[in-house]
Specification:
113 residues; alpha+beta; hypothetical protein PF0899 fold; three-stranded mixed beta sheet; three-stranded antiparallel beta sheet; binds zinc ion
Length: 113
């Protein structure tokens, strides 16, 4: 399950931020998850709860922002919405679509106190 290592990566970032800011507690972590990133939000939420136990982020709320997928269709020469990573263009049906958005996961915000 690759969500576990992703959750550990997020925790690392959160702990670094908390240490730098001298925070006592982490209240909220906002994560952006792209639809084309193949990250399962439910699995990630579960893993986040597990890895933050006994850390400064224990009990922190995790908010997940869904980022829609987008790609560049070579046939249409236009940016088109994409529902899946190796999906086809919704306009012309071509499979020559290069993913350009919603392919990654990133931390948008960390709320500490
Ligand atoms: Zn197209």
């Amino acid at each position: 399950m690759h969500e576990m290592s992703l959750a550990e990566g997020v925790l690392q970032l959160v702990e670094d931020t908390a240490r730098r800011e001298g925070a006592k507690r982490v209240k909220l972590v906002v994560l952006e998850i792209g639809r084309l990133s193949s990250v399962q939000p439910e699995a990630l939420t579960f893993c986040f709860d597990v890895v933050t136990r006994n850390s400064v982020a224990e009990g922190a709320a995790l908010e997940i922002v869904d980022v829609p997928g987008a790609g560049w269709c070579m046939q249409c020469a236009a940016t088109v919405p994409m529902a899946e990573l190796y999906g086809s263009c919704p306009t012309c049906g071509s499979h020559q679509v290069q993913p350009t958005g919603g392919t990654e996961m990133r931390v948008r915000e960390i709320e500490i106190e």
